[in-house]
Design a protein that fits this description.
This protein is mainly α. The chain contains four helices and no strands.
Length: 71
């Protein structure tokens, strides 16, 4: 149940960041694709960043990508 709440909260916060409702620049948090017109689903997809170390695996900007892109 707590995992579901965290995922929901993460998705809400991601929407706020990407839509400009938060005072955070979305390109500093997420990597947005250049060709947004060729995306299946919605136009606010997020690209997956690859890192050398596993320490960033559980950061907000990484854990939310898979759930956000599903919708």
């Amino acid at each position: 149940m707590l995992e579901t709440w965290r995922k929901r909260g993460d998705l809400i916060e991601t929407y706020k960041i990407l839509s400009g409702k938060e005072n955070i620049e979305s390109n500093k948090v997420f990597e947005l694709p250049n060709n947004a017109h060729n995306l299946i689903g919605h136009s606010m997809k997020i690209s997956v960043k690859r890192y050398r170390l596993n320490v960033r695996k559980f950061f907000f900007s990484q854990r939310v990508v898979a759930h956000w892109n599903m919708w």
